[in-house]
Design goal:
Blueprint (H helix, E strand, L loop, with lengths): L1 H38 L7 H20 L15 H11 L4 E9 L5 E8 L5 E7 L4 E4 H14 L8 H11 L8 E8 L5 E7 L1
Helix pairs in contact: 3-4
Length: 200
């Protein structure tokens, strides 16, 4: 008889203790959550702590990804913002070229690449990748660097290859010990192209 009644008592006691334990844990978590949130370490202190941590992580991630090319920076792409495009389009009207593309390779695989191009839809693309000086720019920022240099150039369809190379290297302050030199221009007046290539 004693054994018969012992099991229900044992089961009931276990259930009561289990319920008490859960209540105690919930209240402990609820009490700790505000303190942990204040410390900024609420990752395991309930839903609100986890949300704050996720938000903080997202903000930090956005800051790391954004860097100097964040959403407020007009140079985050090829100046897709209307203001940058308008400015570049106006200045392109003053150049003798609708396309300028330069690629100069040096020893140890280092390169200097520069490009300004007015596309068929009238948008302007600009980029600079200067491995000699560790510079990489796109959009309006690159255009502002390249425009004054390209504007100085006097290369025409009749310019000799050696003269064009000398003028470009001088204008862009590039060393003349290159291993490969490539230049492509498209003239605004008649749309003809001028291409030269030289290897050492």
């Amino acid at each position: 008889m004693k054994v018969k009644y012992a099991w229900p008592v044992l089961i009931a006691g276990t259930l009561v203790l289990g319920a008490c334990g859960e209540t105690t844990n919930e209240s402990t978590d609820a009490e700790q959550a505000p303190a942990l949130e204040e410390d900024g370490a609420g990752a395991s202190a309930g839903d609100s702590g986890t949300d704050n941590t996720a938000t903080d992580d997202s903000a930090a991630e956005d800051a790391a990804v954004g860097g100097s090319d964040g959403p407020d920076d007009p140079v985050s792409s090829d100046a897709a913002d209307a203001t940058g495009q308008e400015e570049m389009q106006q200045k392109m009207d003053e150049l003798n070229y609708t396309e300028f593309e330069l690629e100069v390779e040096y020893a140890e695989g280092k390169e200097y690449e520069a490009e300004i191009e007015r596309k068929s839809d009238n948008t302007v693309k600009a980029k600079v990748e200067d491995e000699l000086n560790g510079v990489k720019k796109n959009g309006l920022d690159a255009f502002n660097d390249l425009y004054p240099l390209v504007e100085q150039m006097t290369i025409s369809s009749g310019t000799a290859k050696e003269d064009a190379i000398r003028e470009v290297l001088s204008t862009f302050s590039l060393p003349d010990d290159y291993t490969k030199f490539e230049l492509e221009l498209r003239f605004k007046d008649d749309g003809t192209e001028y291409e030269i290539e030289d290897r050492k």
